[in-house]
Write a structure and sequence with these properties.
The chain is of the alpha/beta class. The chain has a single domain (6-193, 219-241), classed as Stationary-phase Survival Protein Sure Homolog, Chain: A. The protein is 22% helix and 24% strand. The chain has 6 helices and 11 strands. It has helices at 20-27, 75-86, 112-122, 142-158, 223-228, 247-251; strands at residues 6-10, 32-38, 57-61, 67-71, 93-100, 127-132, 164-170, 181-183, 194-199, 205-210, 232-238. The strands form 2 sheets. Strands 3-4-2-1-5-6-7-11-8 form a 9-stranded mixed beta sheet, sandwiched between helices. A two-stranded antiparallel ribbon has the order 9-10. Helix 3 (112-122) links the parallel strand 5 and strand 6. The longest helix is centred in the middle third of the chain and has 17 residues, at 142-158. The chain is globular and about 70 Å long.
Length: 270
Amino acid sequence: MTERPHILVTNDDGIDSDSLVPVADALSEVGEVHVIVPERNWSGASHSITLFRPLRCRRTNLRGGREAFMTDGSPTDCVRLAVLGFLKRRPDLIVSGINRGANLGDDITYSGTVAAAMEGVLSSIPSVAISVGSIGGDIDYGPAAAFAALLARNVFERGFMADALLNVNVPALPRHRIEGVEVTRLGKRNYHDQLVERLDPYGNPYYWVGGPAVSDEAEPGTDVAAVRAGRISVTPIRLDLTGHALLDELSSWDWGWTAPAGVGGAAKER
């Protein structure tokens, strides 16, 4: 009998996330699920890793009794632990999420959820980042969990390239109101960030930085537009950030630079 595939579930919302049980339960219908998550919230941590101190990783249980592990490291650290030998078997798929709040457009550059999936790609493991477009109140993670399982089945049955990840955003809607699935490109999200200065009780300044996203018209075909229209957005993302269209143009520039004598094969006169 063929061994079931192994799936790593991680997140950036931490061990207390309400999404862990639904997504782990749904994925367990597809494969053997292992959960390694941070012990606290790491939203906005991007692709940070721990270098200058040891990592702690402790066994715990999710609600319902499922075994899990929590670390004092980042979402990326969780994936590195799993891939480098903490688990007895290397994962066949990494599912990062389900994140509380959308990761659309430029958000992916900050997202710890997407960064964990990026780490999977760097280890040549098919990886998915999945988020729900709501941050307030009670969230029904059932539709996103079911879609994560559907994606996992597709990955195992069809295969998926090892140098890209899938960034998924699910509208915060009941399943019967979701208008289908759209394969999209990244959109654009601008924020009205502000710097707010305040004083602590000792008179020392401290700062809050942040602001709401601009809710302007989204371009058709983007993840922003799809979620706004009530559809699940699936965006393939590659890690090659090279501006390929600029390579020829930059090669034609006069850089005004020559190697000094004796460097690059030039003979030095005596």
